[in-house]
Amino acid sequence: MASVWPEASAAGVSRATFERETRGLEPDYGLPDLALPGRPETGAPAQPEFVRPPADYIKEASIARLAGEGRRLLGMHRAALDKIEARFGVPGNVVLAIWGRETDYGRSPERYDTLRVVATQAYVGRRKDQYRTEFVLALKILDQGVVARKDFRASWAGATGLTQFLPSEYFKHGVDLDGSGRVDIWHSVPDALASAAKQLADKGWQPGLRWAYEVRAPAQADCTAGVPEVRRPIGAWIDAGFVPVRGRSVSAAERAEPASLLQPEGIYGPSFLTTKNYFVIKEYNFSDLYVLFVGHLSDRILSPETFATPWSASSQLKTKSVEAMQRHLTRLGFYRDKVDGKAGMLTRAALGAYQKAAGLKVDCWPSEAVLQSLGAAR
């Protein structure tokens, strides 16, 4: 910590704050994602977005409850949300959905001391350089007196506030919407929601564009096309048989928008045409299920309609099994992304390509049977 003082001083942190906040600070060796000398790496915890089947992650009971509360908050914060949409182009129901998913509208208190988390990760984490910067900026937040240390709580990865920002994101995207003279994402709902909207806008949010369209895929649809790189105008997808559910009409302007196919359960569950805004939300959390949760919740705040096609998967492979699958697919030349145990769009498409080559049923869904086939493949 002493070695960080020059960086903290250059960032504007006072010596008094540095001494006060680092006095008695000890590492929390119980955190995940550490690389302790002489011990195996602890690894990140299995995030629910990547180890639970969609129906278990996007639970209807949870969505319905959060949507009901979201409608109430939409009315309560109408003035602030109108100002946010006018300024950043992000609708109020979208930022409310992020708030609902991240902290249950502020009802889910984070367990960890933010400063201790980022200091520990900077000391013995796997991303030391990143967290060294987060540690300096966490000190800067405390130095500015925006939040008291006791209220400066975070997730195990250091995300803090009602809408879960890392300290660096706070300084990049923080907004003082309530005019208090400081950006308070811990207590001020207008500031937290405006900051979330600015983060989406800064990442490329396109005003007036839906996040996705649920469609019914044609029987002959190729699930290996479900990757971000395969982008076609929505009209071209529709002409190819991907029909918007419930007879939803699509305007000429919407038909011209590029979109990618997303089939989170391969050929079995709902299918979506995902727009640029889908991938903007994904930069908030790199999980397809997270984006589906937030996007669907944002829709449900405005409308009671559930997904038209039910989820069907009852189980999901564990992280280690998905890692093994990714290693086999890499060995066989079908997969070129990182081995991370997360069965995202690229992994599912690579799996489908292997199924095609091996003469198996092409469903793009990671199952134990396909994993065994991969293990035996040469």
How would you characterize this protein structure?
The longest helix has 17 residues, at 60-76. The protein has 378 residues and is mainly α. The protein starts with a helix and ends with a helix. The mean pLDDT is 94. A hairpin with an 8-residue loop joins strand 6 (258-262) and strand 7. It has helices at residues 5-10, 15-22, 48-51, 54-57, 60-76, 78-88, 92-103, 114-124, 128-143, 167-173, 189-202, 234-239, 252-256, 276-282, 288-302, 319-331, 345-358, 368-376, and strands at residues 112-113, 153-154, 212-216, 232-233, 243-244, 258-262, 271-274. It contains 18 helices and 7 strands. It is globular. A 5-stranded antiparallel β-sheet has the order 4-6-7-3-5. Strands 1-2 form a two-stranded antiparallel sheet. Helix 5 packs across helix 15 (288-302) and helix 8 (114-124) runs antiparallel to helix 9 (128-143).
Topology:
Layout: H1 5-10, H2 15-22, H3 48-51, H4 54-57, H5 60-76, H6 78-88, H7 92-103, E1 112-113, H8 114-124, H9 128-143, E2 153-154, H10 167-173, H11 189-202, E3 212-216, E4 232-233, H12 234-239, E5 243-244, H13 252-256, E6 258-262, E7 271-274, H14 276-282, H15 288-302, H16 319-331, H17 345-358, H18 368-376
Antiparallel strand pairs: 1-2, 3-5, 3-7, 4-6, 6-7
Helix pairs in contact: 5-7, 5-15, 6-11, 7-11, 7-15, 8-9, 10-11, 14-15, 16-18
